[in-house]
Amino acid sequence: MTEPTGDILETFENPYPGRDYVIETVCPEFTSMCPKTGQPDFGTLTISYIADATCYELKSLKLYLQQFRNHGAFYEAVTNRILDDLVAATLPRWMAIVGEFTPRGGISTTVTAEYDEPVSAGDPTASE
Amino acid sequence: MTEPTGDILETFENPYPGRDYVIETVCPEFTSMCPKTGQPDFGTLTISYIADATCYELKSLKLYLQQFRNHGAFYEAVTNRILDDLVAATLPRWMAIVGEFTPRGGISTTVTAEYDEPVSAGDPTASE
Amino acid sequence: MTEPTGDILETFENPYPGRDYVIETVCPEFTSMCPKTGQPDFGTLTISYIADATCYELKSLKLYLQQFRNHGAFYEAVTNRILDDLVAATLPRWMAIVGEFTPRGGISTTVTAEYDEPVSAGDPTASE
Amino acid sequence: MTEPTGDILETFENPYPGRDYVIETVCPEFTSMCPKTGQPDFGTLTISYIADATCYELKSLKLYLQQFRNHGAFYEAVTNRILDDLVAATLPRWMAIVGEFTPRGGISTTVTAEYDEPVSAGDPTASE
Amino acid sequence: MTEPTGDILETFENPYPGRDYVIETVCPEFTSMCPKTGQPDFGTLTISYIADATCYELKSLKLYLQQFRNHGAFYEAVTNRILDDLVAATLPRWMAIVGEFTPRGGISTTVTAEYDEPVSAGDPTASE
Amino acid sequence: MTEPTGDILETFENPYPGRDYVIETVCPEFTSMCPKTGQPDFGTLTISYIADATCYELKSLKLYLQQFRNHGAFYEAVTNRILDDLVAATLPRWMAIVGEFTPRGGISTTVTAEYDEPVSAGDPTASE
Amino acid sequence: MTEPTGDILETFENPYPGRDYVIETVCPEFTSMCPKTGQPDFGTLTISYIADATCYELKSLKLYLQQFRNHGAFYEAVTNRILDDLVAATLPRWMAIVGEFTPRGGISTTVTAEYDEPVSAGDPTASE
Amino acid sequence: MTEPTGDILETFENPYPGRDYVIETVCPEFTSMCPKTGQPDFGTLTISYIADATCYELKSLKLYLQQFRNHGAFYEAVTNRILDDLVAATLPRWMAIVGEFTPRGGISTTVTAEYDEPVSAGDPTASE
Amino acid sequence: MTEPTGDILETFENPYPGRDYVIETVCPEFTSMCPKTGQPDFGTLTISYIADATCYELKSLKLYLQQFRNHGAFYEAVTNRILDDLVAATLPRWMAIVGEFTPRGGISTTVTAEYDEPVSAGDPTASE
Amino acid sequence: MTEPTGDILETFENPYPGRDYVIETVCPEFTSMCPKTGQPDFGTLTISYIADATCYELKSLKLYLQQFRNHGAFYEAVTNRILDDLVAATLPRWMAIVGEFTPRGGISTTVTAEYDEPVSAGDPTASE
Predict the structure, then answer these.
(1) What is the ipTM, given to two decimal places?
(2) Do the Cβ atoms of B72 and B34 come closer than 8 Å?
(3) pLDDT at F45
(4) Taking the complete model, does pTM exceed 0.80, yes or no?
(5) Nearest 5 degrees, angle CA D38-CA D41-CA D47?
(6) E105–I106 C-beta distance less than 8 A
């Protein structure tokens, strides 16, 4: 099976680039394969971002995430990697991703990663 | 069908303009049409604001929102546009809108936009 | 029917005036009349305060609120007015009131108002 | 606007006609218009049935229900009418529909109607 | 204050008299006065019925129930009395009412009463 | 401390003796003492009954139950005993009591006891 | 991809064949492919059964269900087919399966199928 | 480690043997070892019974269940075995046990077993 | 009845005094008597603290709180007084208590009080 | 029984060391023994951390925690000790642990401890 790629992500022009507003997308049907055991993993991804010039298109996001269906991926790596792919595709002002994975062996894991625009003076999270 | 317009919004005089207090209105019956698929979308709008001189009247808000029933609108654009219309009609000290839309293709979206009075020294959110 | 009055409120001496502690009172059985439609409105009032010298007595609070049962009152006005009456009766260091009203026409409203002691150097919310 | 019609419903062959099994479909995005007030109504329809030779196809069910979007309909009538249309299209062994409508004036309504195959000796509900 | 009366109830023709279907109406904003203490009582009434020739109209039901707002009534009596009034107005095949009242002195009460059409051979509850 | 007694229970005339209707009383503030450990026990009592000629008065029920506050009582015995006392005081057509007690040592207990009128031909539970 | 097969199911000897007891297995991580759209479907399968001589082994059940991960299957067919495979593998006295699938286009579907041992005089559901 | 034994169970005289009443005991802290993997299992046991002459004492029940802490036991066998031990110790008129075990490999299991007094004419479940 | 006293509280040495960590104790079974009505009050106390040299022992805390069972105490006074007693017994770096009392006359009350070590430079709440 | 040891913990290389992201692990199946009563304790541990060079491996974490199964440990000590062991094994930038233990004698306890990298200029919690 081919490696997942962010090239599949499509974007559209942010309709309100003059305002820092938050778009949150909840994807409860994420599934990938554990590289160690070969067993499927399941999780809910919550992606939040403040778009700059472009937003991701939801159908392409769905197809992008479906690439992981038969792809081996550890929780920590896949959450960060999806963040990197989405940042590369949309160049947002800010983005965060929370990956909540279902229990294995009585233990469940959540990975939370965040991206801040490197040199933005108007970073909306700076004043918190 | 005609374009929705904020002209339909009626206001009344803020009964306590001397105090910065918050009015929150929850509208769980918002529906519009997806411009791409022609299918209806459904969502809950939560509008919060600190009125200055005027408050919006609830029945006119309901009629204003019903204009979108057969109107094509993307999530990101319609949430920001309703914020703009309500700000224009009430000139509030502060206003925020959260649009939570129901799942499509296993993915659900929430858009959150906020307006701050441009030059208000007494901005209630500045000290947070 | 006579106009509601805060004169009905009784107070008792704050047993711990040396400490800024919070008393929260939840009143889920508030009801008044809509002045526009003549229909009854229903809501839950949550009153929180830091007493200075006096606390309000709960039974008198109940009787005070029952005065609104057949009294016409808009959401925004009645929430602020009850805050004013309770502040006048107890002269607290800080007080807040949240009025959550049940849906009308598919729309529900919550009004939140707050009072800070005007010149208190020891205002407990100043350092937040 | 044209009258809704069950002709839009498509069916497919029941894959397991030899077994009495139950298919339940929940449609939380039903909306129609109140013929009296001209205001939109909202509700959740739950349709359960035991298919005989045919099952309804889900996409055509969605399009069938969307016909009511701008159609005037009272709760009691529309729930029974949808039951009639679905029975006519699928000729099931048993079917039930529950329509739960959102509150109006502080009152909410649920309508539950049921269809039993007229002369079936093997009616699965007869022995309850 | 005048005594509540069922004369205020309006009915409309049952649109599907040929089918025994259930209409459930939930009224969470019922309030009356305790005849003993003079204090207001609050409760949720849930009315279910199988109409024969007529259904009650919802707005008139609301006005009928509002008559109890300043009327003294014990839980047991008022629940049965409302059942009697609604039966008299609609002559249903079957009707039930559940009155759930809020706690007093740490104790809450629910009263459930049911009416069956006296001589109906087709009584839908007989076969349970 | 004196032994609890059902003599404290007051009754009033059933306002609708011609109908078998159910009165349910939930008492979440029941407390007694464990005879073995001397520690307090806590529970919620739910009493349901179909009155014959008399109903118990709620304030006297509260005072009756408060007699157990400093009284030693095992879960099984106290639940059955309260049922006996209430049956003796009201002579109901049917009565049931559910006592749900809070966890001790990681184990929680619920006791459910029921009383049926001995020779009643019209016993409402007989046809179930 | 190869067709899923029940041959993968392993069984073990029922440790208490002399008693009709129920084993319920909840599998919230079922996923298959929609044959029509090629999109993944997700659901929770709840399997209940009364074993006769053999029980299914849980790890083999998991592997059996994973065969559907990249297999096209309609809701109605796949639920019945899994029932057939599990009945064939374990020859139970009684078995039922509930397949609850996540929403598509705002509509969600649950399929419930049941198997009764054909000629068992001791059928545990016969007396209900 | 020694084999668990029901000999540890202590009983006391049923205080109300003349009435068929139900005692339910919920034990959310049951743990044993999986004989196959050597890993600990966790579950909630809910035991319900109608006592005849004797009831089990709760502290001895807790100690009895703790014997399984380091004991290998499959779900199906251990649930039935505990039922047998409790029946042997208390000789009840009726007893049922529900063992709900936490998920393993994304699958969770519940085992429900029931005991009926063999020749009792007054079996409380016979009339259901 | 004797006056409750903090002398009953036992402490043990903080096992990790080098770290500011929080211990939270939830006591849902607090009960005292209303001095005005003589009726029992019920509440849940949540105590949180950062121990310095000593921690309170849980069994002695339970016995300390049981002293209030038959003791008259107003909500505001008893919550602050328990805070004072626990501070005196453990000399913590920080302590807070939340007393949530059950509804009376449809109104419920929560009292929240906090203690900060007077001259501690390392006060963990100072930097918030 | 041997003393639990952190030596059993295995780690793997942090796949994204350049980003401060949070990994949260929830372990609802923690159990140890009370050193005072010899009775088992049960709790849920929630561990959150920002890894530096290494992450802990989940299966080794499970085995590490299982060492406490038959080990005597007080709530306050065991929570802090596990934090120390995990910090020693992974040398994180930040770590926190919340231990929520089930009720004993009607009282439940939660212990929350946190570790900050001693001299890190880039401490992610410093800017809060």
Answers:
(1) 0.90
(2) yes
(3) 98
(4) yes
(5) 140
(6) no
Contact A40 G29 (CB under 8 A): yes
J106 and F105 in contact by Cβ < 8 A? no
**Considering CB atoms only, which of D39, D66, D102 is closest to B40?**
D66
Q: Give the pLDDT band (50/70/90) at residue A123.
A: very low
Structure token digits, residue E74: 């014990």
Question: How many C-beta atoms surround the C-beta of residue H11 within 10 A?
Answer: 15
Q: d(Cα G2, Cα E82) in Å, to the nearest integer? A: 65
Chain position carrying tokens 């989940």:
J58
Does residue F34 carry a pLDDT above 80?
Answer: yes
Residue found by looking up tokens 């439940």 in the block: J108
Half-sphere exposure of C109 (CA within 13 A, CB side): 21
Nearest to A22 among B103, B107, B112 (CB): B112
Given the residues B20, B27, B34, B123, the one annotated as active site: B34
Cβ distance C80 to B24 less than 8 Å, yes or no, reads no
C residues 87..106 contacting D (CB < 8 A): 102-106
Asked if residues B51 and B90 have their Cβ atoms less than 8 Å apart, the reply is yes
Nearest CA distance, H104 vs chain A (angstrom): 6
Whether C34 is catalytic is yes
Look at the block and give the residue holding tokens 């229903």: C42
CA distance G25 to H103: 10
> Which regions of chain G are under pLDDT 50?
120-128
Interface mutation vs chain A, best among H101, H104, H107, H108, most A CBs within 10 Å: H104
Residues of chain D neighbouring E62 (CB-CB closer than 8 A): 105-107
| Residue F122 pLDDT exceeds 60 | no
pLDDT of residue D7 exceeding 90, the answer is yes
Residue E35, sorted as left (phi over 0), alpha (psi -120 to 50) or beta, turns out to be: alpha
Whether C42 has its CB under 8 Å from any CB of chain D: the answer is yes
Residue among I4, I46, I96 at smallest CA distance from C19: I96
Neighbors of chain H by Cβ distance (3+ pairs < 8 Å): A, F, G, J
Query: Looking at residues F58-84, what average pLDDT do you find?
Result: 97
Nearest residue of H to residue A103, measured between CA atoms: H106
- Per-residue pLDDT band for E58 (boundaries 50, 70, 90) equals very high
Contact D52, D15 (CB under 8 A): no
D4: which 2 tokens? 């809704």
Tell whether the model's pLDDT for residue E88 goes beyond 60.
Answer: yes
| Nearest CB to B106; choose among A23, A24, A29 | A29
- Give yes or no for a contact between E106 and F62, defined as CB atoms under 8 angstroms apart: yes
What's the distance, CA H10 to chain centroid?
A: 14
Whether F28 and E106 have beta carbons less than 8 Å apart is answered as yes
Q: What is the pLDDT of residue G119?
A: 60
- Mark out the alpha helices in chain D (DSSP H runs): 58-66, 75-90
Cβ separation I26–J107 shorter than 8 A: yes
Q: What is the pLDDT of residue B1?
A: 55
In the structure encoding, which two tokens stand for residue E30, read together? 């019922």
> Are C107 and C95 in contact, with CB atoms under 8 Å apart?
no
pLDDT digit string (tens) for H93-108? 999 999 999 999 999 9
Confidence band (pLDDT; 50, 70, 90) for C121?
Answer: very low
The whole-number average pLDDT for the span F80-91 is: 98
What is the mean pLDDT of the segment spanning F45-60? 98
CB G54 within 8 A of CB G91: yes
- Contact at CB, F14 and E74, closer than 8 angstroms: no
**How many other CB atoms sit within 10 Å of the CB of residue H1?**
9
pLDDT of residue E45: 98
Instruction: Write down the catalytic residue from H20, H27, H34, H123.
Output: H34
Tokens of H39: 């890993």
Q: Do the Cβ atoms of C26 and E103 come closer than 8 Å? A: no
Tell me how far apart the terminal alpha carbons of chain B are, to the nearest angstrom: 44
